Amino acid sequence: MAKKKKIIEENIEPVANFSQSEPANPNGDHPEKGEVVFTQHDIEKLIITVRGEQVLIDRDLAYVYQVEVKQMNRQVKRNIERFPEDFMFQLTKDEYNSLKCHFGTSNKRGGDHRALPYAFTQQGVGMLSGLLRSQVAIETNIKIMRAFVAMRRFLIQNAGILMRLSYLERHQIETDEKIDLILDKMEERSPKMLPEQIFQTGCVWDAWSYVSELVRSAQQRIELIDNFVDDRVLSLLIKRGKGVSATIHSRFTKDFLTDLEKHNTQYEEVKFVQLPHKNHDRFLIIDDTVYLLGSSVKDMGNGLCAVTKLTATPETVLGLLK
Hints:
With 322 residues, the protein is α+β, with helices and mostly antiparallel strands. Helix content is 43%, strand content 16%.
């Protein structure tokens, strides 16, 4: 069976439920100095959680500082000793791909998009503020520090709710996995449509169920060649899909033709073709496949019998009836 996909973002997640909408220039260009004024709320929406740390990605950080990403990263690399791992780290390829899928990160903020971006923690942003000394950078840095504090306060105040949501998510995933396992076991143990099926004497229901599945599987046509048929065969053919034609090739009996006439007044028509002579074997044609039946359909399972898929074509079998 087709299983659901289950994607758990282990390393990258949004802080609370803030959207990742961006206060971007409508043209998608890097803003000129003083062109855009960012609020603390704008910056809060850019803070995400990676590896359990609240961070700002270098491109978002350069965007709110209103500097080029390359320029900012050059400053960082010249002073790399000021940025240990807990101040700044580079995202892995998986983390970056997950970030793009989760938030729809685009390429409109400049920088070398072949390189993996860097993530700055609150300490890293504080250290960076000492390197970028423009008036915009100073004012923006104050807002960034306040945004980090606001995010931390939000997490503390809502820790219980967030933990509960996380528990419910894990519980739902575990429940889905158990349901999938149960359905897989049921599918493994259910009867399979085999090319060759043998039914022991007394297995009336198993034989009837098997033939019923064959009837339901038809997409275009069903043709039954059987010397002896009755109203049970009509009950079986009712199970076919809408638009699937049905024809019975059999010997004439008045009682059956009466049943057939009444059946056809209510359900999709079942055609009747008189056999020109008596046949020893019975055949069931489902679309382009021919099955040899070890007994009449109405008697399937009353005695030891088999249903065998043949390599002969329907046209070959029907042609031999003449």
